[in-house]
């Protein structure tokens, strides 16, 4: 009982800290460093058709994330239908974003699947965890690759070292994870490819957000680098709010971008992600029906 209370207390403390960080950073960016009306003014002349394309690309990236997770589920004989996976995924996004201090989206997913299938909590938790790890690994490796692509340093050894490290990493990470977790050995390579495709889709999302806000950077790869770094750092704030805007604002200052425009783009990313996460409320009230894939019948000649 005490253990459960301590866990709940920790969740509320962590969530409270994230909310506090977001509120402080948003206030700092919108009312201290910049002016909120200057940022909002950038949306008046926005091309909302491009913004809509960015939203569609984000939805597609989340839909593909479901396929990636399904690889790990298949390894433990968890034969969920794609629709069931999507329902759980979006409900998980909703929990992660809108239920402060409550059960996390991934934890809820593990709970539901363990309740419906005779598969251990350890195996299901591991599958969900490894899906996150491979996605994070791919993002970090792309960031390292962008250090080379963006010409951020005048030292060739660092630049080509970043290129070599990233290319080796894309092969080495699945191999190393396969040695540690042999049950998912074959899955890691497929999952890494999916992760790269997902990041390429998000590159498209970034492009259309910038186009929609009439931002035409001289070095698109630097904007992409900022975008990915802010995505990783977003875990320390509430759904990325605040931290994403701060990263874009200071990076714009460092690379001579327009601070207000860059922050407007960052805020647009935050609005898109939180809006899509809200879709999960449908399954909060409707419930998630767990279904298995239809068994294929093999007809022998």
From TrEMBL:
Subcellular location, record wording: Cell membrane
One Gene Ontology CC term in the entry: plasma membrane
Residue ranges crossing the lipid bilayer per the database entry: 12-36, 48-67, 88-108, 128-148, 160-180, 192-210, 222-241, 261-285
Lineage, uppermost ranks: Bacteria, Pseudomonadati, Bacteroidota, Flavobacteriia, Flavobacteriales
Claim: Cell membrane is one of the keywords in the record: yes
Annotated membrane topology: Multi-pass membrane protein
Keyword annotations: Cell membrane, Membrane, Transmembrane, Transmembrane helix
Highest taxon, organism lineage: Bacteria
Organism: Faecalibacter macacae
Name of this protein: UPF0104 family protein
Pfam families registered for this protein in UniProt: LPG_synthase_TM
């Amino acid at each position: 009982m005490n253990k459960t209370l301590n866990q709940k207390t920790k969740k509320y403390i962590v969530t409270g800290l994230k909310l506090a960080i977001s509120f402080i950073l948003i206030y700092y960016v919108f009312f201290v460093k910049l002016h909120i009306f200057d940022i909002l003014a950038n949306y008046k002349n926005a091309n909302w058709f491009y913004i809509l394309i960015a939203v569609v690309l984000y939805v597609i990236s989340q839909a593909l994330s479901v396929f990636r997770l399904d690889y790990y589920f298949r390894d433990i004989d968890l034969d969920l239908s794609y629709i069931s996976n999507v329902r759980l995924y979006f409900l998980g996004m909703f929990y992660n974003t809108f239920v402060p201090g409550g059960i996390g989206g991934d934890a809820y997913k593990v709970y539901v699947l363990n309740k419906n299938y005779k598969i251990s909590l350890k195996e299901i938790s591991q599958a969900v965890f490894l899906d996150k790890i491979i996605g994070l690994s791919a993002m970090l490796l792309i960031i390292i690759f962008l250090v080379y692509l963006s010409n951020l340093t005048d030292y060739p050894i660092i630049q080509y070292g970043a290129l070599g490290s990233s290319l080796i990493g894309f092969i080495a990470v699945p191999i190393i994870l396969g040695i540690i977790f042999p049950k998912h050995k074959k899955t890691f390579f497929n999952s890494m490819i999916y992760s790269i495709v997902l990041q390429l889709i998000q590159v498209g999302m970034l492009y259309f957000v910038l186009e929609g806000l009439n931002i035409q950077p001289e070095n698109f790869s630097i904007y992409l680098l900022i975008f990915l770094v802010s995505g990783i750092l977003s875990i320390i704030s509430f759904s990325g709010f605040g931290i994403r805007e701060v990263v874009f604002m200071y990076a714009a200052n460092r690379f001579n971008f327009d601070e207000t425009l860059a922050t407007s783009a960052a805020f647009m990313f935050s609005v898109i992600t939180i809006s899509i996460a809200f879709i999960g409320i449908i399954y909060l009230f409707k419930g998630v029906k767990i279904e298995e894939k239809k068994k294929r019948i093999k007809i022998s000649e």
